[in-house]
Specification:
Length: 784
């Protein structure tokens, strides 16, 4: 191909328009036409080396006489030619440019606040962001932490990423730094994510933090203004891709650049961020073995089959994401070795191609089969790795359903999901998306009959079934019910350890041809889903058993005692079997007398819960005999030592005499209770502690007596409320007492809520917690 062979069209960046911004029908102000868009213009300087407009677009050359103002515009990365991006995109792109970030992303919270959806992207193709297009706010990711904790999350290096976010580091193995900052105004709207090459310092300056924070406030204001006008940026299947690029070059510098590239030894070419070839020199054409017409506008690994290797594509991905030069050696058949050097920036990649001066690798990778054999793209491999890592972190069946719906469905462009288990010869639906409830009612409980449904056949044979259209479904499975208006299906059996555990059905609103590559990836993913699904079912079964056992051992309700208001709460640890040994009880002894008890059996398992039931029964038996607090603990202690258990128990027992307005307490190594006087003064009660139950059969338990005036509040609790790693126990108890003194005792349940918040135990808990609150109501004074 000769330079100047004829007029051609090439993309260029236009300068911002001076016309005022317009407003879209959604109420969101839109960008003026011309900002952050690509137009196709005549460029004789580079001739036929520049790409033609994409198919379906009309170039300027195709409409002679049109003025430049009438040239069709293309929003980068979208499927629509309309420029409705809005001021939000402009503010976002300006933030990326001013911070010097190489890649930026804006996530918006869904209405339920449980999911972050990628709305706008800058500096990378949308394909790269596919694994993170939808991020659960509860997930282990920087953007999730930023929105959940309301703070700026900084990751200064890949090593820090590996320590803090191992799953993200595994599927993003490039040297980089990033920050995730919540976009917050009157409410939290989402998260701004910015990424830099690893060449920047591994820390953020105060000025940088301030600028990012102000940018987030600006984005929040734009979102709030849009919401006030009744509009909101509509979520799309793919994020909008904008650019923070600068203006275009004139024809003269373009001609000089082309001449410069032609004079260099070897070959030169340019790729955009999507990976398409936008310029190629004659030297590069000679080395690559193709003419310019066969290369321009194509992806190298598609137009050059010998580059169709995930390793080669990964070099390109590494250059785009890390913004650092990448070099590698490839073999052009039959035996010519080439060195390729990639030099990236925010607008694309410059590539130098030269003959390799060294010997070829001693063991080149074997050639993969061609033709109909499946060819996994690097992007799909990363996405599969990301999903596999995510599946290892799910806990319950609902977590599996949510993950498949939020990440696997969008990855394959599916609009429907049905996840079923095999139970007694029938399919029981455990989760679904994209179907009306009436359709699910028809599908739930269908027989696993190989001749009736593709789901039954796939489950019984272990072979996936792919149905591209309704005609194929009616031809092969005439009796299968067609519900929900779907028109293509993938039936993926969930097989683990050689046994079927269920089936995952992905469906489409229109006909869908399943390529061999797509079938291979779906089949591989089904195996991972099966393992996660089986683990989740086992977890749910154990969880239900543990929850039922815990509820059976704790009192279903507390007795009514005249003159006493009572509230109680039990919270299991957030790790383990969701069961523990903490317990509480209130025992009515007679008119105006009662016993309150709280305890903690060592451990968080079924054995601890079982022993807790025995301790509670022992305390109850001794208390109803009218024995004193120290004798109640003495008898219970002997019971535990006789049982020979290896688990120890702390316990606090109080005898309440509302008529005499006195309380007598005894403790077996339990944290002291808190009391709040009617005047608001609050403090721990000095109860001399005895030894833990179950250690010494001859142990003695001292008692303490305190006044019990009307208006007094007593708080009994277990150590899970006050023990925090790295914190002094006495300080924690004193802080809790201070909060109790400032609290209102009109509603004891609200008082417990406040104590839990003060202790910081409303989220993750390493230990279970039991709380029992007693309030002595105002009553008549005792006789005498």
């Amino acid at each position: 191909m000769r330079r100047g062979a004829g007029p051609a069209s090439r993309p260029r960046r236009t300068a911002p328009s001076s016309r005022p911004s317009q407003t879209s029908t959604t109420g969101v102000p839109t960008l003026p036409r011309g900002r952050n868009v690509l137009v196709w213009e005549r460029a004789d300087a580079l001739g036929a080396r520049t790409p033609q407009p994409p198919p379906g677009r009309t170039s300027a050359r195709g409409r002679p006489g049109d003025s430049p103002a009438l040239l069709e515009v293309l929003v980068t990365g979208t499927d629509d030619p309309a420029t409705d991006a809005g001021e939000l995109d402009a503010a976002f792109a300006e933030t990326v440019r001013r911070t010097g970030a190489s890649i930026g992303a804006l996530y918006l919270l869904d209405p339920g606040g449980q999911l972050l959806r990628l709305e706008v992207l800058c500096g990378a193709p949308a394909e790269f962001a596919a694994p993170w297009a939808r991020v659960p706010t509860a997930g282990p990711a920087p953007v999730a932490d930023a929105v959940r904790e309301g703070r700026m999350v900084w990751v200064g290096s890949h090593e820090e990423m590996a320590r803090s976010y191992p799953r993200t580091a595994m599927v993003l193995p490039y040297p980089l730094a990033l920050v995730a900052a919540p976009v917050t105004g009157v409410r939290t709207w989402g998260v701004l994510l910015l990424m830099w090459p690893a060449t920047r310092p591994p820390y953020m300056t105060g000025r940088e933090r301030g600028h990012i924070a102000s940018s987030c406030r600006r984005l929040a204001r734009l979102l709030e203004e849009a919401a006030e006008h009744g509009g909101f940026p509509a979520s799309r299947a793919r994020p909008r891709v904008v650019t923070a690029g600068a203006g275009h070059r004139t024809a003269s510098p373009a001609m000089a650049a082309a001449d410069f590239a032609e004079r260099l030894p070897g070959g030169s070419c340019a790729l955009d961020l999507e990976g398409r070839i936008t310029y190629v020199s004659s030297g590069a054409c000679e080395l690559l073995g193709r003419d310019a017409d066969g290369l321009l506008g194509t992806l190298p690994w598609q137009s050059l089959r010998w580059l169709d290797d995930p390793v080669c594509e990964d070099h390109y991905r590494a250059a785009v994401i890390s913004r650092e030069p990448v070099s590698f050696t490839v073999c052009r058949p039959p035996g010519r070795w080439l060195e390729i050097h990639l030099y990236p920036d925010a607008s694309g990649i410059s590539a130098r191609i030269i003959p390799s001066g060294g010997r070829p690798p001693p063991s080149p990778a074997p050639r993969r089969p061609t033709g109909t054999a499946a060819r996994a793209r690097a992007g799909q491999l990363y996405q599969l790795t990301h999903l596999a890592a995510a599946l290892t972190e799910v806990v319950g069946v609902q977590d599996v359903v949510d993950l498949v719906a939020d990440q696997i469905m969008p990855a394959f462009g599916a609009q429907g999901l049905v996840l079923s288990t095999a139970d007694a010869g029938r399919l029981r639906i455990t989760g679904y998306r994209g179907y009306p409830p009436s359709a699910i009612e028809r599908l739930d409980g269908l027989s696993v009959d190989t001749g009736l449904t593709p789901a039954g056949r796939a489950l019984s044979t272990g072979v996936p079934a792919f149905v591209p259209d309704p005609e194929e479904m009616r031809r092969v499975y005439p009796e299968a019910p067609l519900v929900g208006g779907k028109r293509a299906w993938a039936f993926l059996p969930l097989i683990t350890s050689g046994r079927p555990v269920g089936i995952c059905v992905l469906s489409y609103d229109g006909p869908h041809t399943f390529s061999a590559e797509e079938r291979a990836v779906m089949t591989s993913l089904a195996g991972l889903v099966a393992q996660a699904f089986d683990r989740a079912r086992l977890y749910d079964t154990k969880h239900e058993l543990a929850h039922g056992l815990q509820q059976a051992l704790l009192p279903h309700s507390l007795p009514a005692v005249t003159g006493l208001r009572v509230a109680a709460r039990y919270l299991p640890a957030t790790r383990g079997m969701d069961i523990g040994g903490d317990f509480y009880d209130l025992i009515r002894l007679g008119d105006g007398t009662a016993a309150a008890v709280i305890g903690d059996v060592q451990g968080h398992n079924v054995a601890a819960a079982a022993l807790m039931g025995q301790v509670r029964s022992g305390v109850h038996a001794h208390a109803t005999l009218g024995t004193s607090p120290d004798q109640v603990l003495l008898g219970t202690n002997r019971l535990l030592t006789d049982l020979g258990t290896d688990l120890f128990t702390s316990c606090l027992y109080a005898h309440l005499d509302l008529g005499r307005r006195r309380a007598t307490l005894a403790s077996a190594g339990h944290p002291p209770p808190l009391l709040r006087l009617p005047d608001g003064d609050a403090r721990p009660v000095a109860v001399p502690p005895g030894p833990l139950l179950g250690i010494d059969p001859d142990a003695v338990f001292p008692v303490a007596e305190i006044p019990l005036p009307p208006g007094l509040t007593l708080v009994f609790y277990t150590d899970g409320l006050v023990e925090t790693p790295g914190a002094d126990l006495d300080d924690s108890i004193a802080g809790l007492a201070g909060h109790l003194g400032r609290s209102d005792d009109a509603d004891l349940d609200l008082l417990i809520d406040g104590l839990l918040r003060e202790a910081g135990t409303t989220g993750q808990r390493l230990d279970d917690i039991a709380i029992l609150v007693l309030h002595h109501e105002t009553g008549p004074r005792p006789p005498g």
